[in-house]
Amino acid sequence: MKTLLIMRHAKSSWAHPELADFDRPLNDRGMRDAPRMGAHLEEQGLAPDVIISSTANRAKSTAEIVAEHCGYEGEIRFHKHLYHGMPRDYFRSIGPLSASMKCCLVVGHNPGLEQLVENLTDYYETMPTAAIAIVECAIEDWALLEVEGPFKLREVWRPKEIF
After folding, report:
1. How many beta carbons lie within 10 A of that of residue 1, not counting itself?
2. pTM score > 0.90 for this model?
3. How high is the pLDDT of residue 74?
4. Low-confidence ranges of the chain (pLDDT < 50)
5. CA nearest to 39, candidates 70, 74, 11
6. Where do the domains of the chain lie, and which CATH numbers do they carry?
7. Which is nearest to 159 in space by CA: 26, 51, 54?
8. DSSP characters for 9-68?
9. What is the DSSP letter of 84?
10. pLDDT digits (tens, 9 = 90+) for 26-46
């Protein structure tokens, strides 16, 4: 059994219109929600064995803050192809993971994340900023993620609903 935590980056800032979309930082709400969601993961016993993130500034910052607050001590794996990534891009990043890793957190962007949740579970869920979908996968090897399923959508945590 594997657990896949699918997280949309926390709320980003539009205060600097000269910045490229890729470079936008988190805003105050994002800086508040990211540590809360990380702490919530730890409180619920869902600290990941590995974290994979888009390289966009807002996703990278979210992953780093969540890692700090959920007790994660490993290195975060950053993948450029997850910026504007679609489900196949997430499968490409998750599939090679070691079978010994039981819980993976991916941090990325919509619409790809909502499509990933739907592809895996057959349920469409809205993923506002900093939301985390918890998907239980009855597989032994991460490489099977793309070909097995549907899997169980245990729940979706949205910051406005839990804090």
Report:
1. 10
2. yes
3. 95
4. none
5. 70
6. 2-10+20-162 (3.40.50.1240)
7. 26
8. PPPBP-S-TTS-GGG--B-HHHHHHHHHHHHHHHHTT---SEEEEESSHHHHHHHHHHHH
9. T
10. 999 999 999 999 999 999 999
